[in-house]
Specification:
Nucleotidyltransferase, domain 5, 27% strand, 5-stranded mixed beta sheet, alpha+beta, flat
Length: 398
């Protein structure tokens, strides 16, 4: 039933044979048969087994090796944790649900993200990271401690880890101190920081330690970091507080203005993923959007096409393009020639907007490519730093 194998009862008759020498034991051909009931579980088919694995997550085997060195991408939208020698072990939304009366955490990660826009009075689903930095210190500290505990509890021997945290390139000293204090409160032994564009460049395999210039654009949930990198340092950069969240807010305002429909951020994110584009598509798409009618106050469904969504997100996309131009204007001419030859690499979740690479290519005249796995490029680069301190140690700060 529902793909789960059910026990089957098998009835068989066997003669009773006792140990020899006992007077009450009858041995021989005419021994009385006894009915024995045996429950067996049939071997499930491949389809049923796959469905069962999808429905429930099997507990992971606990490892003996302690997680002593971790890389954390504390992003506005998602938090990723990488363990040295294992790879990415945690990828959760940076959302926490808080009980306003007691201050207790009701849920963190995916459980809390499902509560966005659905919480009753007294429970608030918040995102402690805003524009790439910590906006709510207490919630961010509890969220980071929860994520680190999930990773550390996977091992039998538990130690305080050394952690490298990715931060935006334009972070201030006050925001840097907030990251430092929250990590120490979460039980980190030693904290190091690395700029997100530098980690992204290392993650996509750019030669950051050579005199050849490389340009990377990391479009995250709260910030867009643009950097030209050479000889293990950032030669020139531009960091703007525009990212995926700005695109979501633009779609919310577009639906409110054009359709008199009020929608939440999760719905706007779904529209952005399905219909969002930076250039006209060969085949425009449509989807039904549900929300609350601002005129009647009743639930309502409207049909939205990708051309309207493209117009809605045009302003934040143009801000990203202008930031790329500013970074190129500050680039030394020798490095500019390298970028003209090698091109620009796009990383981060915002780079998945369809046609964004084509738009940047048209606006700058430079070759642009999107990384194969842009969502994890930053934390993968931080993992490479963990693997080779001697090569990349100069990019770290405290």
């Amino acid at each position: 039933m529902n793909g789960i194998p059910q026990p089957v009862q098998v009835i068989c008759k066997v003669p009773v044979v006792g140990p020899p020498g006992l007077p009450h034991t009858r041995r021989g051909r005419n021994s009385d048969p006894v009915t024995v009931s045996i429950e067996t579980t049939p071997v499930p088919s491949a389809d049923a087994d796959a469905g069962e694995v999808r429905r429930r997550q099997l507990p992971k085997r606990r490892a003996w090796r302690p997680a002593t060195e971790l890389a954390v991408d504390l992003g506005t939208a998602n938090t990723l944790v990488l363990v040295k020698g294992e790879g990415v072990v945690l990828n959760e939304p940076s959302v926490a649900a808080v009980d306003q009366a007691t201050g207790n955490i009701m849920g963190i990660g995916l459980d809390a993200k499902r509560m966005l826009g659905r919480t009753p009075d007294g429970i608030l689903a918040v995102r402690p990271m805003k524009d790439g930095v910590i906006a709510n210190f207490e919630v961010a500290e509890k969220m980071l401690r929860h994520f680190l505990r999930l990773v550390i509890d996977r091992t039998i021997f538990k130690v305080k880890p050394t952690v490298i945290v990715c931060v935006p390139s334009g972070i201030t000293e006050v925001e840097r101190r907030a990251v430092r204090d929250s990590a120490r409160s979460a039980g980190v032994k030693r904290l190091l920081m690395v700029a997100e564009p530098m980690a992204a460049a290392i993650g996509v395999g750019l030669p950051v330690d050579t005199p050849v210039g490389s340009m990377v654009i990391d479009i995250g949930g709260g910030t867009t970091n643009i950097a030209v990198i050479a000889l293990g340092g950032i030669v020139c950069d531009a960091s703007i507080r525009t990212g995926g969240d700005e695109l979501d807010q633009a779609i919310v305002q577009f639906m409110r203005k054009n359709y008199s429909l009020l929608i939440g951020e999760p719905t706007a994110e779904r529209i952005k993923i399905k219909l969002g584009s930076a250039v006209p598509l060969d085949r425009e798409e449509e989807m039904d959007v549900k929300g609350r009618d601002l005129v009647s106050g009743l639930p309502k469904t409207v049909r939205v096409d990708s051309s309207g969504v493209r117009d809605a997100i045009q302003e934040p996309v143009s801000r990203i393009v202008n930031a790329v131009r500013r970074a190129l204007e500050m680039t030394p001419p020798e490095l500019a020639s390298d970028i003209l030859e090698r091109g620009i690499v796009l990383t981060g979740g915002g780079s998945l907007i369809r046609g964004l690479d084509m738009l940047l290519m048209d606006e700058t005249g430079l070759p642009v490519r999107v990384d194969e796995d842009p969502l994890t490029s930053v934390v993968r680069g931080t993992g490479r730093i963990l693997d080779d301190y001697s090569k990349y140690g100069n990019v770290l700060t405290t």
